Automatic annotation (TrEMBL):
It is an enzyme of class 2 (transferase). One of its GO terms (molecular function) is dihydrolipoyllysine-residue succinyltransferase activity. Residues 84-113 have a biased composition (Basic and acidic residues). It catalyses: N(6)-[(R)-dihydrolipoyl]-L-lysyl-[protein] + succinyl-CoA = N(6)-[(R)-S(8)-succinyldihydrolipoyl]-L-lysyl-[protein] + CoA. Residues 2-76 form the Lipoyl-binding domain. Residues 120-157 form the Peripheral subunit-binding (PSBD) domain. This is Dihydrolipoyllysine-residue succinyltransferase component of 2-oxoglutarate dehydrogenase complex.
Amino acid sequence: MILEMKVPSPGESITEVEIAEWLVNDGDYVEKDQAIAEVDSDKATLELPAEESGIITLKAEVGDAVAVGAVVCLIDTSASKPEGAAKSEEKPTEKKPEVKEVAEKKIEAKPEKTSYASGSASPAAKKILAEKDLDAANIKGTGKDGRITKEDAVKAVPSMGTPTGGSRGESRTKLSMLRRKVAERLVSAKNETAMLTTFNEVDMSAIFKLRNEYKEDFKNKHNVGLGFMSFFTKAVIRALQMYPSVNSMIDGKEMISFDFCDISIAVSGPKGLMVPVIRNAENLSFRGVESEVKRLAIRAREGEITVDEMTGGTFTITNGGVFGSMLSTPIINPPQSAILGMHNIVERPIARDGAIAIAPIMYVALSYDHRIIDGKESVGFLVAVKEALESPEELLMDNNVKKALEL
């Protein structure tokens, strides 16, 4: 019996996927539920498992865009598992390098047969060209009958290069469907929104103090670290509730405002930027936020994140500080209307109580769509985030740290 394997729907609104990689070869015997391919949609990379055991026949090439529901391979379920298949597969792979080596020797042997006549290099010139890693075929000789002299070799420079030579290779790699979609969305955000960015700085001293005092107890009890993301998420939720327009988006001629906070967290994954969503983050405790951030980040980096887990956020937080960024203007994640950028934390001199003090400072940036968010609201929102982060015990923990951290 021949089973036709079709592309399953990765999620609503997705009509096609791209074959990123076949994990098996044409004619291989595959087991049921064995991963046979990786497919890219415009939102995630997913594994395609074999629906039955049997001999597989591939019907699509790597890089092909395949419609959802189209046949990508056939599985002959009546075929029995061949014995000694692994041994037979090893033989051709052992012979291939030998054939390639012989071919390379033949190619290398050709120049030796060339005379020193027209267009050839003298022994001295040949040595200099070899040291510069230059091809004699690209050098115009000035000697008799066009022969390349020592002087020609000394003066020769690589094309678009310098006399010192050096490698100037290049490679081309096709962008994955996910990367192309991210690029389209970023350009769309720049072209279709009235995006502005406002900046502020945050004294992280209070958060450092809380983390140093409670991080061990927090980790021991909840099996998750007390990071900065829970403080920023809680501060953002408070500010969104104070400034509802920041938690809104444009739909045609209407503005949609939400009474919940679905916070998207930008994560750098192996296939590009992933933005998993923490649903109803306003209902989560510090422990709940940290656990959800950890779970989603692991799934994104291991390529297990689903389309549903990356759809529907109302506001995004991105942390370029983990890569060392001091300051940036983050791009809005459409159709959202605002995004908060975190950056690295550096000890800087500040004025405190009329004196100069050294404190751990983070610059923060809020990019927003000026079509529905006014300057007063954007600045007020970022100031509210700053206030909450600089007074977390009072504004985020109701003056009861242990209760807030569930210790």
